[in-house]
Amino acid sequence: MEDFVQLTNITKVYQMGEVEIRAVDGIDFSIKKGEFVVIVGPSGAGKTTVLNILGGMDTATTGKIIVDGADITRYNERQLTGYRRNEIGFVFQFYNLVPNLTAKENVELALQICKDPLDARTVLEDVGLGDRLDNFPAQLSGGEQQRVSIARALAKNPKLLLCDEPTGALDYNTGKSILKLLQDMCREKGMTVIVITHNSALAPMADRLIRIKNGKVSGMETNAYPVSIDEIEW
Amino acid sequence: MGKKALRKEFFMEIRTSLGRFLSIFFIVAIGVAFFSGIRATEPDMRFSGDAYFDEKRMADLQIISTLGLTEEDIHALEELDGVEKVEYGYSVDALCQAKDSSQAVHVMSILPTMNVLTVEEGRLPGKENECVVDVDYLESGGFSIGDKICLTSGKEDEITDTLTTDTFTIVGAVSSPCYIGFHRGSTTIGTGSIAGFVCVPEESFRTEVYTELYLSVKEAAGLTEFTDAYTDRIEEVKKQIKEIQKEREEARTRGVREEAQEKITDAKQELADARGEAEEELAKAERELTDGRKKLEDGKGQIETSSAQLEQAKARLLSGEEELYRQAGQANAQGRQLNQKIEEYNRQVEEYNRQSQLLESQRTLLEEQSAALERQREQIAQEQAKLEEQSVQLAQWETQLVQERSALDAAIQQWSTLKAQYDILASGNPVDPDTLALLHKMAEELAFGEQQIAAGEEALAASRKQWEEAQAALTAGQNQMAAAWQQLEAGQAQIETARIELDAGEQQLKTAAGQLSQAPAQFEQAEKQLSGAQTQLDAAQAEITKGWQQSREGESELLSARREIAEKEKELSDGEKEYARAKAEADAKIADGEKELEDAETKVREIESAKWYLRDRDDFPEHAGYGENADRMRAIGKVFPVLFFLVAALISLTTMTRMVEEQRTQIGTLKALGYERRAIAGKYLGYACVATLTGSIAGVLFGEKVFPFVIITAYGIMYEHIPNVVIPYNIQYAFMASAAALICTLLATFFSCSRELREQAAELMRPPAPRQGKRIFLERMGFFWNRLSFTWKATLRNLIRYKKRFFMTIFGIGGCMALLLVGFGLKDSIFDIGLLQYHELQLYDGNLILNEDATEAERTEACEKLAADARVERTSETLLKQVTIGCGDTKGDVYLNVPKEAEPFFRFVVHRDRITKEVYSLEEDGVILTEKMAKKLGVAAGDSIYIQDEEKGELEVVVSAVCENYMQHYLYMTSSLYEKIYGKTPEYQSVYFMMKEGRETEQEEVGEEILREKGALSISYTSDIETQLNDMLVSLNIVMVVLVISAGMLAFVVLYNLNNINITERKRELATLKVLGFYPGEVAQYVYRENMILTVLGALAGILLGKFLHQFVIVTVEIDSAMFGRNIDFSSFVYGFLITVAFSVFVNGVMYFKLKKINMVESLKSVE
């Protein structure tokens, strides 16, 4: 199968005064379509930076990223926005829901700008919030909020679902159910999902596991038989 | 903050969040600057005024007395505790001829040290006839230094009763601390208002007593005028003065009365003296009369004796005269005889002379004849000789004739011979040519000879004839000669006879002459005798004439004596009559004098007690106004700065709250580390404290200098003679503003800190719970809500959710809008009044004031001249005078306006309701009062008010309508109502006039012409008043400009700050949107939609707020004599709104860049 996503020698350098910080220092990897990818690494390894660059929220200092055949590193600001708008779904560690909008409205917020959206209600039902449509974020638990966040990302029907520590702020069981949801979405809808976590216990559930350390890929392995999250304990 | 690390962190905090620090700093600085600046303006105005008045040593109090003031008054006042110094002065109001009109001026003496005049030009007067003039009046009156001004009193008495001269030379232009503005006060002469003041040396006044006293109050100079401290101090001293006032008034009254009484006593004495004198004189007259009578009787007796004597003398004269006549007759007869004789003698002499003459002439004639005879004799002899000669000649001629006869006979002979020859020859029939020629020649000679002989014969015949004639003539002559001889002999004989006769005549004459020569001697003797007689007669005649003359003289003397007697008698009786009359008169006079004295005595008893008028500085024109302006500033200072301050406080509050919230995690950390609450809160409180304090100090330093300076300078337009601008720092306001700012921010910080600090450390480390999302009430209105697009729903919900922001933004924008509206509205209201007043309500172009001192006819003439002018459209006469009206205890001064005829008047003055524009007409049963005064008195249509009249007391009238009016206060009533309540016909002394369309510019020419009339006093033009009004309002406008600019600045800061906070607060949300793929424009729209709605809502709220604020400000800044417009023009709403929106758009434009700068990565990293 063709590489759906391909990163070639990506670096990201921050100039902090006289000190040069290389957050990402030459990362290469590629991902196939429909894979559930887990990127693990310790804090500060540069995994979020990579995700941001991949998601079009940040630009790489050097290197090349091909997503579905398009070189996004050559995109300008506006093209990047369009890329985020139509091809990327984001799930944040802190959900980042708009507090003044209900669950459904938060999903709709994303839908109204993309080309080929799914129905908000269906998606919310899919993520198991069929009965909490009209609740405001403050009225939802953390897990539920994250589900709304996932629904918002999914409803855009993106090519790529990027999740940055989706369970970071959640308790164990909730986190697990969120991961389950993500895995299910990947399996059922054939969506390419990239999850960042510092928890290497999640490694078995991934189709592809990428380890990052000090801004470099320290290892990448594919898992022919990923296990369901239900079977993983940590 | 004893901890070093924490302290360091504190300074680091300031350095890293310099933006926030500065935003608090500036907002506090602006708020404090405005608050303390505007507030300080009020005291600064007072200080400035006070500095000026102190510098000019303006008197604190002035005492004017109705009966004047004396040296004793000065002493009494000087002894008072509170009085530092007393100076006296004189003053009088006079009319001064300026340009074409005469205007009232206040003439006052220059005080030694107080009320120092500022010499603007020229110098102070040195001499009695020099003066300095009000610098404003110098200009308005058209004078220049070196001109002379002439003053008249404007009353019955002469100005020279008060002043030593009525003409003064202007030597300088001055300003006086007594007159700080445009007004110069009012008077009872001229138009009633004083146009300017004139200062003269004290010596120019004649008046004995001082007109006024000026006092300076101890310790008052140290106090600020227009403050309670000063007023209290003055009141204190006033009280002291009032304590002695009564006594002094009485003393003065007594003085005046005593003086009068003294005069009366003198008068009494005089009267008594006069009475004695009169009686004496009368007695003397009586004596004289009696004497006269006696003398008259004597005179009469004398006349009788003289008369008798005269008669005797006359008789004697008559007899003497008769005798004289007789003698004169004799003398005359003798004279006549002599005359006859003389005449005879004369005749004889004449005859003799004639004879003698005749004889003489005969002798002469005879001699002549004799001579002529002799001459004839000679002549005849000559002729005889001539005849002799002729006879000789004739004889000769006869001889000649004979000769000629013989010659001729010879010639005949010859011819005959020749003839014979010829005949011989001819008879031979000669054929010989010679012979023939000879023959022929002989024939010719013969013919010729024949002819000659004929001629000779003829001539001889003629001569013979002539000779014969001469012979005849000679003979005649000889005959004549003989006759002449004969005659001559006869003549000779005659002459001889005549000569003998003559000799005889001569002899006779000689005898007559001898006789005649004896006569003259006889005559002489006779004449001598006669003349002697005549002389005697003449002497007698002369004597008699003299006698007669004497008699006549005696008679005329007698007559004149009689006449004299008669005259004397008449005189005497006249004298008696006169005596009687004089006596009566004297009695009457004495009675009158006594009566007068009595009257005078009652008058003295009635002399009104002297009254002191105690005036302080507020009683000078516009002084109180200056204080009021300061009060007005205070009123403004109470509203505007508070508004500013409130906004500033809110801003710093939000900023600090935001700061605390942002640093939630840090607080949690510190707390977790074990720092006590106080230390943690201390950091934020300290931060707020430092920012606020520094901001306050900067604000005070700036605001308390700049705002008062700008505003006081602006007011300088109205009070151009106060050059002082004193702007000290007002610690009070500085402290007040700073403390308020500090308390606001510290409290805000404290509350947000304590809220955070109350939570557990762990809780603080976690991100804050999302804000409670809530449905808004609009959602319940399904029909409306469902129709909204999703974005609108989100916007609306956002708006309503962030209530604090919502209200603050509305407040900020509303405030901005309101302030703009106030600014524009004030402009409308203030500049409207000129327009409304002089273009909609008072439509006349000018007002002619008639001269009340002129005669009725002169006034009428002036009126008629004005009405007849071709450039004038129409005129209307009216009565215009100032009266005091009241309702209950409230009173006010208004102009009573009584039009002569209603018809033209309503074309000059429109009475209408301000709101409904309903036009009222002047009715018989009520008066129309202008709005501002009606409001002041608290009356409406239908209520009654009273007019105060000096004579009639309070006159009650019913207000029939209240009309729109902006300048001054008027009370309109019909002439019949006036007559009814005043009981007299109104004296119209004012004429409104209107120029013809298009000829308004010529009004001044018309005015000049009219003012030449005696009946015209002065003229005022509406356009001048309007200009003056607008000038005055400009200063207020400047204050407003300051306010509006500040408002704009504030609005900008507020909007910027709020937007900034909004964006910062919602950074995450916006970053999420960005991540979701919203284009920058869409993100901005998301924010702007809210902002625009807020702007519009804020502007609407601002309109509401602005209207109220405008109303408040208008009422506050309004001057007493004017009502400012209450309306804000529609365009002002539009402008205000557009400017507000423009502000908002501008701020949002700036925000766009801030939005763009939101970093998705940074904002999504973690929740802070």
Gist?
The complex is a heterodimer of chains A (234) and B (1168). With 234 residues, chain A is an alpha/beta fold. Chain A has 6 helices and 10 strands.
Chain pair forming the biggest interface:
A-B, 38 and 33 residues
- The total domain count of chain A is 1
Number of strands of chain A: 10
The CATH topology of chain A comes to Rossmann fold
Could you say which overall geometry of chain A the principal axes of the C-alpha atoms support? globular
CATH architectural name of chain A: 3-Layer(aba) Sandwich
Backbone CA Rg of chain A: 17 Å
What do the pLDDT scores of chain B average to?
83
What is the CA–CA distance across the termini of chain A? 33 Å
Number of contiguous helices of chain B: 24
**Structural class based on helices, strands and sheet pairing of chain B:** alpha+beta
Low-confidence stretches of chain B: none
- In the sheet with the most strands of chain A, the strands line up as 6-7-8-3-9-10
Q: State the major sheet of chain B.
A: 6 strands, mixed, barrel
Overview of the structural elements:
By secondary structure, chain A is of the alpha/beta class. Chain A has helices spanning 47-54, 77-87, 103-111, 120-126, 142-155, 172-189; strands at residues 3-16, 19-32, 36-40, 62-67, 70-71, 88-91, 160-164, 192-197, 208-213, 216-222. The two termini of chain A are 33 Å apart. Chain B is 67% helix and 12% strand. Classes of the chains: A alpha/beta (234), B alpha+beta (1168).
